[in-house]
Amino acid sequence: MYRHTPQRQHRGQRHDAARMPTECRPERRAKLSPTSETAQGGRRLVIVESPAKAKTIKGYLGPGYVVEASVGHIRDLPNGAAEVPDEYTGEVRRLGVDVEHDFQPIYVVNADKKAQVRKLKQLLAESDELFLATDEDREGEAIAWHLQEVLRP
Question: CA-to-CA distance for 71 and 51, rounded, in angstroms?
Fold first, then answer.
């Protein structure tokens, strides 16, 4: 990764731009995101894994972005038959996996994450774009996949 480091300045010396009259200084503008043209004036929802990351990233992004945390995994295999949807019967309810259809897993939203999923769905309905900004590891990829499956953007 390339990091720009300013040249060292001697004590008492100021950067050239600071000595320039204000009317001669070049205008400083924030760079637009690649999708800014598509969502001009719209809201963009960014979903990250943890509340700490959400707070940090919120400081970097502009006013058109809403940053929210998924607070980790939102779905998992059911803990018991009571958590399996009624449409599944027999062994599927007991195992949480459909053995007769290529071992298709039955994922359910965790009870403690239902309120967060409801909040994310509401924020998505109010947004023009969705960015899943999870970590670049297998766990982050799984979290993003489950978010996409549940939120259906």
Answer: 7
Per-residue confidence band for 16, with pLDDT thresholds at 50, 70 and 90:
low
* Separation of alpha carbons 150 and 38, rounded Å: 24
Residue 37's pLDDT is what?
45
Crossing angle of the two packed helices 114-125 and 138-151, in degrees rounded to 10:
70
Letter string b/e over residues 117-129, b meaning 16 or more CB atoms within 10 A of that residue's CB: beebeebbeebeb
Closest CA to 67 of 49, 47, 53: 47
- Note whether 73 and 94 are within 8 A (CB): no
45-55 pLDDT, tens digit per residue, is 999 999 999 99
